[in-house]
Write a structure and sequence with these properties.
The chain is α+β, with helices and mostly antiparallel strands and 180 residues long. Helix content is 46%, strand content 19%. α4 packs across α5. It starts with 12 loop residues before the first helix and ends in a 14-residue tail after the last strand.
């Protein structure tokens, strides 16, 4: 019960090697699927929540700013309804890539939160730098023209971005300041 391979003695070393390699490959695939979104290759929702929690704790201890951006693809349902889910998937992959290319520091990360929503974690980033990064991400996505698989029509994709900022010295319970 629960076994998925067994070898009889005497065993062939080539077969043993193939079985062990298969187990290792399956383990790596399982580990990858635990942390990454299968479509975009970005961090998944659960992993991103864990990373945000760690980043908040680090920012509070270090007294550094922390910015989190929530990104939503505008009118994504219309893309799926009009062009089909393969086009929607192509759009998600293109947006994920465009967002990822805008990040330049090791601690920055993009995650797929779910559906057409993405999150971006920007540790040690000031409010003004986060606004500039959001504008670069918006422009990078707008520059992507997703081509329909069966026609010459290209679809321009736009996103909406919301920023949350944890200023130095603040706590998660500090009252909200109005944006600049």
């Amino acid at each position: 019960l629960g076994g998925d391979h067994f070898l009889t003695k005497p065993f062939n070393p080539v077969i043993l090697n193939a079985v062990v390699k298969s187990k290792i490959d399956r383990y790596r695939l399982l580990r990858r699927s635990m942390f990454l979104d299968s479509l975009t290759g970005l961090l998944n929702h659960i992993t991103s929540k864990q990373r945000v929690e760690l980043a908040v704790n680090a920012a509070l201890v270090d007294g550094t700013p922390l910015c989190v951006a929530m990104i939503d693809i505008d009118h994504f349902k219309k893309v799926n309804d009009t062009y089909g889910h393969p086009m929607g998937d192509q759009c998600l992959v293109a947006v994920a890539h465009a967002l990822q290319t805008q990040l330049g520091r090791a601690g920055d990360l993009v995650a797929r939160i779910g559906g057409e929503e993405f999150g971006v974690l920007l540790p040690a980033t000031s409010r003004s730098a986060a606004y500039k990064m959001a504008e670069r991400m918006r422009a990078a996505v707008a520059a992507c023209a997703i081509e329909h698989l069966y026609s010459q029509a290209a679809r321009v994709v736009t996103i909406s971005i919301g920023l949350a900022v944890l200023d130095p010295g603040a706590t998660p319970h500090t009252p909200h300041r109005h944006p600049e």
